[in-house]
Amino acid sequence: MKHIGVIIGSTRPNRVGPTITKWLLQSITPRHNISFEIIDLKAWNLPLLDEPEMPAKGIYANEKTKQWSEEIKSKDGFIFVTPQYNLGYPASLKNAVDYLFKEWNEKPAIIASYAYRGGGKAADQFRQVTSGLKLKTVETMPAINLSVEMFNEEGRIKDDVDGFDQYSEVINKAVTEMEEEFNKLEEKPVNPL
């Protein structure tokens, strides 16, 4: 069984990230070999990177960083659910990934973005970062277009929104690509040294 961390990238007070993440997980066709666990960056409340050593060294002074390292090490892959803010991804997401290095290496990842224009620019930028972390980011990056009609008077996504259904196919395509990445990793020859 592969354990996938689903990282909610927004920490804003009035964010819609948890709602979109919940919907995204409900849209994924059940698979016997994959389980999903939500990792909410707001709940983690990571301070701005405050470690004295470079993350690539894997030497952590702070207890919070050690806990974050264990959380990320325990996952086989990731789905990053990120909003697009001002044509980029949020600082909270950049900060969270910058805390670590080796813990991310060689793990399959999906970037799912959302915004009034789908969040493609944020996803493209974040893909560069995942490449630097040596994550195996799949080609398909679901970009969810939000619309004013999806929201109620309080600024929350309505419970009965059916506008997300159109994204189920692309999300499942990305998960299938993630499974293919797992297969490639399992077929990779082991270095005997």
Automatic annotation (TrEMBL):
Residues annotated as domain NADPH-dependent FMN reductase-like: 4-140
InterPro entries on file: Flavoprotein-like_sf (IPR029039), FMN_Rdtase-like_dom (IPR005025), NAD(P)H-dep_reductase (IPR050712)
A GO CC term assigned to this protein in UniProt: cytosol
Any one GO molecular-function label of the UniProt entry: FMN binding
Gene3D superfamilies: 3.40.50.360
Entry protein name: NADPH-dependent FMN reductase-like domain-containing protein
